[in-house]
Specification:
Layout lengths: L8 H30 L7 H27 L9
C-alpha cells in the first residue's frame, strides 16, 4: 500500500529547480572533462589539485540537489525547502 503524496506548488518548484541545477552541473562536468582531454598541459601539482577540488565541489552539489528531490518527493513529515 502506497501513501498518498500531495504535490504542492512549493514541492514541484523545488523539484524543478533542483533538476535544472543538476542539468547545469552535468554540463559543467562535461565541459570540464572535455577541457581536460584536449588540454595541452600535464595535470600535476596545482592543476591536478584544482581539478580535484572542482570535482569534489560538483559532487557535493549533485548530492545536495538529490537530497532536495528525495525530500520533496517523500511523504515523511512536513516538507520545508
Amino acid at each position: 500500500m502506497s501513501a498518498h503524496l500531495t504535490y504542492t506548488p512549493a514541492r514541484i518548484d523545488a523539484i524543478d529547480q533542483a533538476a535544472l541545477e543538476l542539468s547545469h552541473l552535468g554540463a559543467l562536468l562535461e565541459w570540464t572533462g572535455h577541457a581536460v582531454t584536449i588540454a595541452d598541459i600535464e595535470l600535476e601539482g596545482p592543476g591536478l589539485s584544482r581539478l580535484g577540488c572542482a570535482l569534489q565541489w560538483a559532487g557535493g552539489e549533485i548530492e545536495r540537489r538529490c537530497a532536495i528531490i528525495n525530500k520533496a518527493t517523500s511523504n515523511v513529515g512536513e516538507w520545508k525547502p
